[in-house]
Amino acid sequence: MGIIDDVKDTMSKAVFSPSTLLSGRGGLHMSQIILSLVTFVLAAFRGGSSHTYWNYAMFTWAFCPIMTLIITIIEMFKLDIVLNMFCMDWSDFTTGMAMSSTLMTVSVAITYANFYACLKCLYGWIVSVFAFLCGLVYTFEVVKDKILDKKKGSYLAALPGFWKVLEAFVSCMIFISLTGYRDKPVLILCVIAYAIPFPILPLIIATNILKKLKKCLPFNLDRFVFIFLVISVLLYIFAAIMWPIFMFRNNPRPSDCPPSFCIWAIEFMVAFMTYVNLILFTLDLIFTLLDICGFKRA
């Protein structure tokens, strides 16, 4: 009966609460949604592009406000109390989403300004300003959660989960930058090496967020993550060696190579991000191994 009473008590607290929108957190969410949508509309009116950076920017300015809206609606109806009881650490999830959205919006603001803002491109500057404002309000939420409110995450907003978020984010940056590899079999193998870990990362994140699901697994998730990280490190070591050799051999940087429209610079970014992700996966592997061996983080 104790469990049933707890459920009834939890459900009784899940009532519509419009005051959520009037709080500092609610106002921050509303500003995030409005700025993201305004930026999306302004960029759409500027005209389409086949460039992957533009597609990634449009996806970010749509995905982030949608997730923020879903979080706001759940909190407005107090459904987070139910979710917190049955399947997830809601505070950890929302802080983790704010950190992920900050990564996405800030990176998009930088890449959009790099590609579409110039001395004669007034409209590009307008979109870029709104893009940076969008990244700024998401950064404010992270600062508020982690520094002002001192929220401690259980996974997504803590080090183990944020490693995975960073790894997935850098993988996305690699994928949207891939070019010049189709006629080189070794570079195609590098792309396969990038692709193998990528779909597994969100599955690991989702399983750790959903606490009940994690307990139902017929295997030890931590050991699975350890094996996954070992394979990922080996794959990225292969790519870190092969991509620079076969991409830049007999392919020096052109003398007229502006960072915004130079294919060589984009190919170099893939190499740079490969080393970044190799470092992230290696550090993640070390911390995971320490946890398995009983050396818990403070």
What does this structure look like?
With 298 residues, the chain is mostly helical. The chain is built from 12 helices and no strands. It has helices spanning 2-13, 24-46, 52-76, 79-86, 90-116, 122-148, 159-177, 185-195, 200-209, 211-216, 221-248, 263-292. Helix 3 (52-76) runs antiparallel to helix 5 (90-116), helix 5 (90-116) runs antiparallel to helix 6 and helix 8 runs antiparallel to helix 11 (221-248). The radius of gyration is 22 Å and the shape is flat. It starts with a helix and ends in a 6-residue tail after the last helix. The model is unreliable at 1-8 and 10-14 (pLDDT under 50).
Q: Give the low-confidence spans.
A: 1-8, 10-14
Average pLDDT level = 84
Share of helix among residues? over 70%
Could you spell the SSE succession in H and E letters? HHHHHHHHHHHH
Strand tally, please? 0
What is the beta-strand fraction? Answer: under 5%
